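Thread: Ribose-5-phosphate isomerase A, structure

OP (GT): Posting the sequence first so everyone is looking at the same thing. Length is 220 residues per the record. Can we get the structure tokens written out before standup tomorrow? I want them in the notebook alongside the other entries.
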Amino acid sequence: MTQDELKALVGRAAIDYVVPGTVVGVGTGSTVNCFIDELARIKDRIAGAVSSSVKSTERLQALGIPVLDANEVERLPVYIDGADEIDHGGYMIKGGGAALTREKIVADIAERFICIADESKLVQTLGRFPLPVEVIPMARAQVARRLAALGGEPVWREGVVTDNGNVILDVRGLSITDPAALEAEINQWPGVVTCGIFARNKASVCLLGTAQGVRTLTWA
Ligand SMILES: O=C(CO)[C@H](O)[C@H](O)COP(=O)(O)O
């Protein structure tokens, strides 16, 4: 199976986790696009979506799915999103699509994070994928110096402006053995909006697309 077929497979499988009559949290990326297309088939059975990016909002609306403001929703039963990496504890790196901050906000409203990914995203230790960090533009150089002092090699994703008007630093060379500690450390620096480690908002379930079918990993 191709990577696109694996993404389509888990996009379909995620429909089983949608709770009828409720609002669904929707992430961002090519795997989520497959999910959105499937969600459109059952749009009459849901109350709408809360979206994590302008791109996902546009796709949802084009398919006739109402998009609600995150501030109008107190709790979402599920948030469905992809990942750039996920480890065997459900900890993730996200933000390859520069949507990490809104993704973390919507994930925080949700009771369960359902991660959908092809099996290439499953890793022993997070850090092979460069860690995205969303930064207020004025703090870019100082945050880059701090990341370098941690042993990382930050690279400014030039030309990319997030939906929140900020910039992204992609950090290579970090071996992330304690995701929660590193997330907390980076997130407290002035000018950092958030980093792409999802430890506090880690996955409850991961639907992994494999050549043998969907492999389901679950965590408490
Ligand atoms: O975090 C993300 C966007 O900010 C995506 O979930 C992540 O990049 C995975 O994307 P894809 O499904 O296209 O591989």
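GT: Both are above now. Quick notes for whoever picks this up: The mean pLDDT is 98. Residues 27-31, 81-84, 94-100, 103 surround ribulose-5-phosphate (CB under 6 Å).
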